[in-house]
């Protein structure tokens, strides 16, 4: 039975990957951080009572800033595959905590690779590094560059997150070349799902849309509506991570859909999913979206209502204007076949959020929702 160790197992990708590897018959180990509240919501359904026989899912306390604990866990687990997904992954927040991001996302990758080397596991343990399209970033003087990014495109990161991930990318490549390790970068473009963190733009939009439609929220405030992203489904992307580590030779791969869409159009698609047509008017910080029509009788929302506005707080000091990837290599070499297109992704996320907030509405209507836990 193969053993996998996943850092960042409590995150969006960690949860989907753990599920996939368990289905493939792996013994799955995950590193979770100690937190004051439970942080295992996304993987609770995979939990197995450690007192039972044949447990194949095990969690270990750890942190990418602590090399002694990484060495101990890797020594104990002796994994065949390590998926380094742990990171402070929010681009905007990385401007607020740049040193921490460098430590976790950059040096954290080194700590994993070095632990494998110190333990003499270079020949046994394959390492996947969660690299990102933020490496490409975008050149400010070339804002309207419409080219597709592939494995040979130059990097120009636009945030402390992107810069930290550049270190992770190169140190992975360097350990592959210097020590002959099976260490690979998956350069993944944005991927989303019903498990996506609530402060990333897609999930913020699908949650906001569901709440507005159900009358639980008045308005949704967003930042740059012009940003263009290549959005795929996380379920498809974790399959690619696994494929990357099953090849004969270690290589780096771009994982993307090849389609780019603006934040504004993602908003329109989400509202349309619940039968609400929107019209955007105005420019820059003055831009707003209004309801044009609502074909779903479940929702009491009047035409002309302002439901989206821009709040400059969400603008970034430096922005990545446009991302679009070329997945030719991953499709031909890995045989990677994504199941979801953007419409399918939006439908999946909206169904999940509408379902969730319908329950909240029922609790509120019945007088069970608690406003202040000290009351
Ligand atoms: P999430 O933010 O959902 O998950 C990040 C995970 O990392 C969480 O489990 C988090 O733990 C953990 N983590 C954070 N800090 C530390 C630390 N100091 N030590 C150990 N673990 C830590 O990210 P995603 O699942 O979306 O992304 C997975 C990886 O892929 C990340 O490295 C991200 O940068 C990268 N990536 C993501 C893309 C995307 O579109 N989703 C695209 C390209 C790359 P906790 O739950 O306790 O916060
Ligand atoms: P990104 O994702 O920065 O691409 O990084 P995010 O969803 O945060 O932003 C995408 C684009 O939307 C614009 N935007 C907003 N973003 C957020 N978060 N909140 C808003 O209100 C908002 N309004 C507009 C942003 O400016 C941006 O242009 C994600 C992360 O998962 C990274 O870890 C990963 O490496 C990359 O995707 C690929």
TrEMBL record:
Protein name: GDP-mannose 4,6-dehydratase
Catalytic activity: GDP-alpha-D-mannose = GDP-4-dehydro-alpha-D-rhamnose + H2O
Protein family (similarity comment): Belongs to the NAD(P)-dependent epimerase/dehydratase family. GDP-mannose 4,6-dehydratase subfamily.
Source organism: Pedobacter jeongneungensis
Pfam families xref list: GDP_Man_Dehyd
Keyword field: Lyase, NADP
InterPro entries to which the protein is assigned, alphabetical: GDP_Man_deHydtase (IPR006368), NAD(P)-bd_dom (IPR016040), NAD(P)-bd_dom_sf (IPR036291)
HAMAP family membership: GDP_Man_dehydratase
Function comment: Catalyzes the conversion of GDP-D-mannose to GDP-4-dehydro-6-deoxy-D-mannose.
EC numbers, comma separated: 4.2.1.47
Catalytic EC class: lyase
Domain NAD(P)-binding, chain residue ranges per copy: 5-349
Gene3D superfamilies: NAD(P)-binding Rossmann-like Domain (3.40.50.720), UDP-galactose 4-epimerase, domain 1 (3.90.25.10)
Highest taxon in the source lineage: Bacteria
Cofactor(s) required, per the database record: NADP(+)
Keyword NADP: yes
